[in-house]
Design brief:
about 110 residues; 3 helices; five-stranded antiparallel beta sheet; 5 strands
Length: about 110
């Protein structure tokens, strides 16, 4: 299985000045989708760029009180770029968690 980490953040409130601040922070690390008002980035390897993307999105969440989500998604068949594979330890962990319907980082339910 090939997969990507999808990182999303909700847009700052409608105040144009606040949104402009968020735009300046995120425009180089994520793409903005105006219909859904969501910033989206994909992490395909754990490297310095990935850490920068995550840091910027979490900084936006802290500064603008927006929600950030990270989830593993299957790489589309048309995806030609780098991606994680299930032979990696991290991929195995995410695959196991996904099998139980849990989001990345969500602890298992105790029964």
């Amino acid at each position: 299985m090939r997969w990507l980490l999808e990182v999303t953040a909700t847009a700052a409130p409608a105040d144009p000045a606040v949104f402009e601040e968020q735009w300046r922070l995120l425009c180089f690390v994520a793409r903005f989708y105006s219909v859904s008002r969501i910033w989206r980035a994909y992490v395909v390897v754990l490297d310095v760029r990935a850490l920068r993307v995550l840091q910027c999105l979490y900084e936006a969440a802290q500064r603008f009180r927006t929600e950030v989500r990270v989830q593993a998604i299957a790489a589309p068949d048309t995806w030609k770029g780098p991606c994680f594979s299930d032979s990696e330890e991290l991929a195995d962990l995410v695959t196991a968690r996904a099998d139980h319907g849990r989001l990345l980082g969500q602890p298992p339910l105790l029964t």
